[in-house]
Amino acid sequence: MSAAMLELRHISKTFNPGTINEKRALCGVDLVLEEGDFVTVIGGNGAGKSTVLNAIAGVWPVDEGSILVGGIDVTGLPDYKRAALIGRVFQDPMTGTAATMQIEENLALAARRGKRRGLRWGVTRAEREEYRERLRILELGLEERMTAKVGLLSGGQRQALTLLMATLRKPKLLLLDEHTAALDPKTAEKVLNATEKVVGQEHLTTLMITHNMRDAIHHGNRLIMMNEGKIALDIRGEEKKNLTVEDLLHKFSVATEEEFSNDQALLSR
Ligand SMILES: Nc1ncnc2c1ncn2[C@@H]1O[C@H](COP(=O)(O)OP(=O)(O)O)[C@@H](O)[C@H]1O
Ligand SMILES: [Mg+2]
After folding, report:
1. pLDDT in tens, 135-161
2. I need a surface site. Which of 6, 83, 182, 201 has the fewest CB within 10 A?
3. Beta strands in the chain (DSSP E)
């Protein structure tokens, strides 16, 4: 059975309206994601990628249009009410985990988010076993270090842990905003592989922003390229599988009648 897990119906957002800083960041974006879709999102600086994710998460209300997550209209809901449906991982490895707490305590907190019971009775043996299994998927050896303080971990390990925490309660939607951009290339690849595994195993519907075209091509079943607050390209299926960076640049210039500018070239190949 296939069902729409995310529906954006013509959403628009203008920041600082009526001022000299007015910025139309989203211009009527339409997007439907089916259950299990793993969509990579690229586009130049300021194209509106993070704004799409913030709109979905409910950081502020959109000006027009509606947003459905797992069939639920969340357009009027504040972010904390949407949080039960959505997992997020950001760029900075220092956010998303609590440095002074253990790995297993961080996972337990994520598992109990929004529930009354805190960590008062500690982590149960059953929970510990579940976390061990999940950590094993990452292939970073963290399952052997469950009582280590998170502050001792590397940036990549912390991002991988944040990813597990964001997906522990199987969200309807996983939003990743350049979650490997702050890591060195080798570590970034490890975290991307871990992402691939977690997303695949849990069959998570995912939007992953990256500034790396190669990563955008190699991961996921669908690729979206944004430009000036709109979706300029939406590539899937066989076309996505056979895509090269050159194809992508060519398709972009055809779709937007623009060459890739210097600013957009910040996207790395
Ligand atoms: N909270 C905000 N207040 C004002 N302007 C914003 C805000 N968030 C984003 N913008 C502007 O909207 C545009 C799109 O930004 P963003 O979605 O962050 O781009 P990116 O594709 O690089 O993630 C940019 O011009 C940015 O400066
Ligand atoms: Mg961004």
Report:
1. 999 999 999 999 999 999 999 999 999
2. 201
3. 4-15, 23-34, 38-43, 64-69, 72-73, 86-89, 173-177, 206-209, 222-227, 230-236
